[in-house]
Specification:
Strand content of chain A: over 45%
Order of helices and strands of chain B: EEEEEEEEEEE
Number of strands of chain A: 11
Largest interface: A-B, 27 and 28 residues
Largest sheet of chain B: 6 strands, mixed
Largest sheet of chain A: 7 strands, mixed
Helix content of chain B: under 10%
Number of helices of chain A: 0
Structural class of chain B: mainly beta
Low-confidence stretches of chain B: none
Oligomer: heterodimer
Order of helices and strands of chain A: EEEEEEEEEEE
Low-confidence stretches of chain A: none
Shape of chain B: globular
Distance between the termini of chain A: 32 Å
Number of strands of chain B: 11
Mean pLDDT of chain A: 91
Structural class of chain A: mainly beta
């Protein structure tokens, strides 16, 4: 499936590096999401964008900076990360009717991030 | 209390068995409910939505009890390919499309 793509699939970075994760959806959706999945923990929502506007920031540290230039693309800019930020970062998209989570969310394959 | 709580398992069952997963949620104002499936090292994928009247999709049956804030998933005639982690997911009462995920229940179906 190529509905939601993410690059890179794997990333190793040092604590002083700056990198960006990219997500692209080909489904004509208007809402996009960033999630973090750590080992043995539930998926944690980080950010939500509806029609390019950020509608949710789930108390995410400022070392994570999202960018949504249009409805099809979503970025997560990373800088001065910590080893505990190592996780699988998943992007998702949905129609974005904005009715309390009733839209089905389609996930990308994720970027597995390791911070040394 | 966790917003969405599931028994992490693992559930180890033989092929052909019937297995049931349960989930509880804390926010009585939640509006939507889902089961997602996540295979090892893959992304979550929607398995089925859960409706108050209960719904069935082949071997899978989902039930919702709003009064008890309880969701269930029943898998009949388990297949090896059903081995995965099953995520209970609750839609937030807010208008942002926010989903709250449970930790997941791991199922291993053995021959």
């Amino acid at each position: 499936e190529t509905g939601v793509t993410q690059t890179p699939r794997h990333l190793v970075m040092g604590m002083t590096n700056k990198k960006s994760l990219k997500c692209e959806q080909h489904l004509g959706h208007n809402a996009m999401y960033w999630y973090k999945q750590s080992a043995k923990k539930p998926l944690e929502l980080m950010f939500v964008y509806n029609f390019k506007e950020q509608t949710e920031n789930n108390s995410v540290p400022s070392r994570f900076s999202p960018e949504c230039p249009n409805s099809s693309h979503l970025f997560l800019h990373l800088h001065t990360l910590q080893p505990e930020d190592s996780a699988l970062y998943l992007c998702a998209s949905s129609q974005g009717r904005g009715v309390g989570g009733t839209d089905t969310q389609y996930f990308g394959p994720g970027t597995r991030l390791t911070v040394l | 209390r966790k917003e969405v709580e599931q028994d992490p398992g693992p559930f180890n069952v033989p092929e052909g068995a019937t297995v049931a997963f349960n989930c509880t949620y804390s926010n009585s104002a939640s509006q939507s409910f889902f089961w997602y499936r996540q295979d090892c090292r893959k992304e979550p994928k929607l398995l089925m939505s859960v409706y108050s009247s209960g719904n069935e999709d082949g071997r899978f049956t989902a039930q919702l009890n709003r009064a008890s804030q309880y969701i269930s998933l029943l898998i009949r005639d388990s297949k090896l390919s059903d081995s995965a982690t099953y995520l209970c997911v609750v839609g937030s009462s807010s208008n942002t499309g926010k989903l709250i995920f449970g930790q997941g229940t791991t199922l291993q179906v053995k021959p």
